[in-house]
């Protein structure tokens, strides 16, 4: 292929509409001159397309390309790199002169000047000039390699801030401020900020942090905490730290870098590639979801550490000042008067008769529950409480009049309160913590809602959602059962005085207590399960659609009376997931 | 019932011919998005006119014919009064595809692995330029504007990068025999 035909093909591939009539005719004539030319033209066009596809079509492949040249098998990256650049240099030597000064007509942006063929004579001065020119070119290339991002280009937007205080007065304080490359590092002294890069990668930075936006797909973290959410289209997003480079493969991950450069990478979703080590001894590791590594400057290789999914600010909202760190909503905490993230109090609950919050939970004995639905105005996330099956037929389970016929008729007898904690106490039983599988409940590790039969509680998911911008309720999960501590009391309990009572005979014979556990979504039953004291606890993990408003939990007596139904929902949680805004 | 049969038949034919038709369009339409649009329009027309398709002819040639007409329309729209390439050149390209529909395309496919390696060597400003042109589909004039260079400089650099990548692919294939 001639140099001229290559030039014409490049013009055609880059901006065909800018070709002059003469150039079009010249290229057409060359293509039709012979099949060999036609095939070469086709090959060049398909090669052009192939570059596009290799770079774009496969996200994974594209990522591999961007990752690191140490991944090229059996090839010294340095020598191979040099070969390519040598070719570019060689091309530079023989390439036509570039017209830089002359203004270029808009329709003809490519102006190749065909070099004049001259009789080449060896001349010492020109030889030195050529050597100098090549040396200058190499220096230029080295410069480009070392300082790859020297352009002032807008590549990201500051989208959210919560209590942000920058070290500089000129910090990008207002939302929607565009951030540019080639800017000196930004230091956030207090609060959190969210940046959205132009490739849609989202990064939340938490003070104290110093960072620098390097390009539309790269950020440098000098120190501090960063959480990145990288959608499919932004795969290949890079976080550089003093000791490592983290290359995303379509994930969510947190990075914490200390002042000494020590870096921790916690992969929360998907996969991430971690490159660490010096230039001549790079280590590249693929990290899967739920794994974490620590890199120190002097360590030869990254070391395994437990993945902590709740130390990074993942979502923030300027308006509500909400900062979400990946924690799920604890319904036990809400029953304790909290927001679901730990602001509630243990041993605080709801009075089933009045709907008021109370810390006075002691109940000497069972008593008849209210026959109507009781709203709970003191806790915005709880719609109300009720006694299931107290009236044969329908039971109201929300303040909006939602009813259900699912519950069987019950005695309507209840004990105590619905509360954040897990203990029992009565006239004949000393106060003690409830247990399942030999594990004590009602503490930080195993928060629980205690609700004796026959009690029910309805949570207002809409009210909870309003406090969670950028986050959605994905599902509800919980363990549930009747405390095994019932067994000890039942062993020696004398039932002769109440032997005529329905169900007592069964309880007396079996010496186990049974209760039925219920979960309803907008009044539709998604769980009804009978569980005995001392037996394996039940578990539930059900998805919750966006449209569901009311989540109802209830416990009813089984066929062995309401007595000894020391029932608990353990770690009752709404599982959250971040969503694109 | 007959419709179902036709649909199934068309699906089989299209699956077999699509790579060739796509390659033909990619050969003549360098703008990636425009090429994809034309391929989509070919697919629509084949569905609409499948009943008129003469089973004696090659399906691939029939689709290539449709693509040729769409490309001519595209050329006249984009090129104004002048077609970007002459009709003879387009015919010649179509002729090569009819004679040997797979060889060139297959050859390019085998280059992919080598091309990945060669692309991984690009860095700095040149890498950015290549990404802007081949991924973001920016014209040399627009790239020049963003990078504060002359359009000529960008065009020539892209030209040289293409030639260097071509040479690099050739060498990798000969060195690694992939």
Task: Throw out a few tags for this protein.
heterodimer, A: 581 residues, alpha+beta, 13-stranded mixed sheet, eight-stranded antiparallel sheet, 10 helices, B: 178 residues, mainly alpha, 8 helices, 79% helix
Describe it for me?
The complex is a heterodimer of chains A (581) and B (178). Chain A has ten helices and 37 strands. In chain A, the strands form eight sheets. In chain A, strands 1, 2, 3, 4, 5, 6, 7, 8, 9, 10, 11, 12 and 13 form a 13-stranded mixed β-sheet that branches. In chain A, strand 4 (202-215) and strand 5 (218-229) form a beta hairpin. In chain A, helix 1 crosses helix 2. The model of chain A is unreliable at 58-82, 89-122, 129-134 and 136-150 (pLDDT under 50). By secondary structure, chain B is mainly α. Chain B has helices spanning 2-28, 32-49, 59-79, 87-99, 103-119, 124-134, 140-147, 151-176. At the A-B interface, helix 1, helix 2, helix 3, helix 4 and helix 5 of A face helix 1, helix 4, helix 5, helix 6 and helix 7 of B.
Strand content of chain A: 35-45%
Structural class of chain A: alpha+beta
Distance between the termini of chain A: 52 Å
Overall geometric form of chain A: elongated
Shape of chain B from CA axes?
globular
How do the helices and strands line up, and which of them pair or pack?
The complex is a heterodimer of chains A (581) and B (178).
Chain A lengths: L2 H12 L6 H12 L2 H22 L2 H9 L9 H18 L29 H23 L7 E13 L10 E4 L5 E12 L4 E14 L2 E12 L8 E4 L2 E5 L3 E6 L5 E7 L1 E6 L6 E6 L3 E4 L7 E3 L9 E3 L4 E3 L4 E2 H5 L12 E3 L6 E2 L8 E2 L5 E2 L6 E5 L8 E2 L6 E2 L8 E2 L3 E3 L2 E4 L2 E5 L1 E2 L2 E2 L7 E3 L4 E6 H6 L4 E12 L2 H8 L11 H7 L3 E8 L2 E9 L5 E6 L6 E8 L9 E12 L3
Parallel strand pairs in A: 5-6
Antiparallel strand pairs in A: 1-2, 1-3, 3-4, 4-5, 5-8, 6-7, 7-10, 8-9, 9-12, 10-11, 12-13, 14-15, 16-37, 17-18, 17-25, 19-24, 20-21, 21-31, 22-23, 25-30, 26-27, 28-29, 30-37, 31-36, 32-35, 32-37, 33-34, 33-36
Helix pairs in contact in A: 1-2
Chain B lengths: L1 H27 L3 H18 L9 H21 L7 H13 L3 H17 L4 H11 L5 H8 L3 H26 L2
Helix pairs in contact in B: 1-2, 1-3, 1-4, 2-3, 3-4, 5-8, 6-8, 7-8
């Amino acid at each position: 292929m001639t140099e001229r035909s290559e030039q014409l093909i490049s013009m055609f591939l880059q901006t065909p509409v800018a070709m002059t009539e003469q150039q079009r005719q010249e290229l057409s004539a060359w293509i039709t001159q012979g099949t060999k030319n036609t095939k070469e033209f086709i090959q060049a066009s398909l090669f052009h397309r192939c570059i596009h596809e290799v770079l774009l079509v496969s996200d994974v492949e594209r990522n591999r390309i961007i990752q690191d040249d140490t991944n090229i098998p059996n090839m010294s990256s340095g020598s191979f790199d040099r070969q390519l650049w040598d070719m570019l240099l060689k091309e530079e030597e023989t390439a036509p002169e570039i017209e830089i000064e002359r203004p270029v007509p808009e329709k003809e942006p490519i102006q190749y000047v065909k070099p004049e063929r001259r009789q080449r004579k060896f001349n010492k001065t020109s030889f030195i000039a050529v050597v100098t020119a090549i040396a200058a070119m190499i220096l230029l290339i080295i410069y480009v390699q070392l300082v790859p991002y020297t352009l002032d280009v807008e590549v990201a937007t500051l989208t959210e801030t919560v209590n942000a205080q920058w070290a500089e007065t000129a910090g990008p304080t207002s939302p929607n401020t565009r951030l540019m490359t080639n800017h000196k590092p930004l230091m956030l002294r207090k609060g959190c900020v969210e940046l959205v890069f132009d490739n849609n990668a989202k990064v939340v930075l938490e003070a104290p942090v110093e960072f620098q936006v390097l390009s539309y797909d790269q950020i440098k973290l000098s120190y501090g905490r960063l959480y990145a959410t990288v959608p499919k289209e932004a795969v290949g997003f890079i976080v550089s730290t003093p000791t490592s480079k983290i290359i995303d493969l379509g994930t969510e991950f947190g990075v914490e870098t200390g002042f000494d450069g020590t870096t921790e990478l916690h992969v929360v979703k998907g996969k991430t590639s971690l490159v660490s080590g010096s230039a001549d001894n790079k280590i590249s590791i693929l990290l899967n979801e739920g794994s974490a590594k620590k890199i120190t400057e002097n360590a030869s290789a990254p070391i395994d550490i437990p993945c902590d999914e709740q130390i990074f600010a993942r979502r923030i909202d300027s308006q509500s000042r909400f900062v979400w760190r990946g924690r799920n909503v604890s319904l036990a905490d809400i029953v304790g008067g909290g927001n679901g993230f730990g602001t509630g109090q243990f041993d605080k609950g709801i009075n089933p008769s009045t709907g008021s919050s109370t810390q006075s939970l002691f109940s000497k004995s069972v008593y008849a529950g209210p026959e109507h639905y009781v709203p709970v105005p003191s806790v915005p996330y709880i719609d109300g409480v009720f006694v299931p099956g107290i009236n044969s037929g329908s039971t109201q389970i929300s303040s909006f009049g939602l009813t259900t016929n699912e519950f069987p008729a019950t005695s309507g007898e209840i004990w105590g309160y619905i509360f954040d904690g897990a203990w029992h106490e009565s006239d004949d039983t000393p106060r003690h913590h409830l247990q399942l599988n030999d594990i004590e409940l009602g503490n930080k590790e195993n928060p629980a809602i205690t609700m004796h039969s026959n009690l029910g509680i309805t949570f207002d998911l809409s009210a909870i959602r309003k406090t969670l911008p950028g986050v959605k309720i994905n599902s509800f999960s919980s363990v549930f059962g009747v405390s095994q501590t019932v067994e000890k009391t039942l062993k020696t309990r004398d039932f002769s005085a109440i032997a005529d009572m329905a169900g007592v005979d069964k309880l007396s014979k079996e010496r186990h207590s049974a209760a039925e556990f219920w979960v309803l979504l907008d009044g539709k039953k998604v769980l009804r399960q009978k569980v005995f004291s001392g037996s394996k606890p039940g578990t539930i993990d059900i998805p919750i659609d966006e449209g569901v408003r009311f989540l109802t939990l209830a416990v009813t007596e089984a066929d062995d009376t309401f007595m000894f139904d020391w029932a608990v929902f353990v770690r009752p949680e709404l599982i959250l997931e971040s969503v694109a805004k | 019932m007959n419709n179902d049969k036709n649909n199934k038949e068309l699906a089989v034919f299209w699956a077999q011919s699509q790579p060739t038709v796509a390659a033909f369009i990619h050969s003549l339409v360098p703008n990636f998005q425009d090429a994809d649009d034309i391929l989509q329009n070919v697919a629509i027309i084949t569905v609409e006119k499948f009943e008129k398709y003469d089973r004696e002819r090659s399906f691939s040639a029939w689709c290539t014919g449709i693509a040729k007409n769409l490309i001519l329309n595209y050329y006249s729209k984009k090129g104004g009064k002048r077609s970007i390439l002459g009709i003879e050149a387009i015919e010649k390209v179509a002729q090569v595809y009819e004679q040997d529909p797979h060889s060139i395309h297959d050859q390019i496919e085998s280059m992919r692995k080598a091309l990945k390696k060669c692309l991984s060597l690009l860095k700095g400003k040149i890498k950015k330029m290549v990404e802007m042109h081949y991924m973001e589909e920016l014209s040399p004039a627009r790239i020049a504007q963003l990078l504060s260079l002359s359009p000529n400089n960008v065009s020539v650099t892209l030209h040289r990068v293409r030639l260097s990548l071509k040479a690099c692919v050739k060498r990798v294939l000969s060195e690694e025999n992939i």
